[in-house]
């Protein structure tokens, strides 16, 4: 017998909020399910697998566009996977760049934090003064 799940059951089974499932459908990430005679969405095993795949990709900080690309590869199982490896290398490079940017941000915040110590009034706060000064530069 073919498995059918309503949206709440799919949400429970995949630990994905109903609103997110609807969003993925609207964005074309999750294939549209057939409808029951009462117009309920009826999801099957392919929806469970797809949603779990998407959630794993999201946990790796992939964008919806990146996930779309991977789904195209996944849906062409006979194709060479060299492009998938190249895609992942590109994503690793983006993550490395973000790590460098975040380390720089941390350094800026730590330097800013050094401007205020002890109990002072907000008017005397070195952090607030620096953030409000014309000498404070916005980087990035």
What topology emerges from the helices and strands here?
Layout lengths: L6 H8 L3 H9 L18 H15 L4 H11 L7 H32 L12 H7 L8
Describe the structure.
The chain has 140 residues and is an all-alpha fold. It has helices at 7-14, 18-26, 45-59, 64-74, 82-113, 126-132. The model has no long low-confidence stretch (mean pLDDT 90). It is elongated and about 70 Å long.
Please describe the structure with a list of short key phrases separated by commas or semicolons.
single chain; 140 residues; mainly alpha; Multidrug-efflux Transporter Regulator, Chain: A, Domain 2; 2 domains; 6 helices; 59% helix; 0% strand
Mean pLDDT: 90
Q: Beta-sheet strand percentage? A: under 5%
Rg over C-alpha atoms, rounded to the nearest angstrom:
23 Å
> Span between N and C termini?
56 Å
Oligomer state of the chains in this structure: single chain
Compact description:
The protein has 140 residues and is an all-alpha fold. The protein has helices spanning 7-14, 18-26, 45-59, 64-74, 82-113, 126-132. The chain folds into two domains: 1-63, Multidrug-efflux Transporter Regulator, Chain: A, Domain 2 (Orthogonal Bundle); 80-118 and 128-134, no CATH class.
């Amino acid at each position: 017998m073919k498995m059918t799940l309503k949206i709440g059951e799919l949400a429970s089974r995949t630990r994905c909020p109903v609103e997110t499932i609807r969003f993925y459908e609207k964005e074309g990430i999750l294939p549209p399910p057939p409808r029951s005679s009462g117009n309920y969405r009826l999801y099957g095993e392919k929806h469970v697998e797809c949603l779990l795949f998407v959630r794993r990709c999201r946990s790796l900080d992939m964008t919806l566009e990146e996930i779309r690309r991977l789904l195209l590869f996944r849906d062409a199982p006979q194709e060479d996977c060299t492009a998938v490896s190249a895609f992942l290398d590109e994503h690793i490079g983006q993550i490395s760049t973000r790590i460098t940017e975040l380390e720089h941000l941390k350094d800026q915040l730590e330097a800013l934090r050094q401007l205020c110590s002890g109990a002072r009034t907000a008017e005397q706060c070195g952090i607030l003064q620096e953030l409000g000064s014309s000498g404070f530069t916005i980087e990035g």
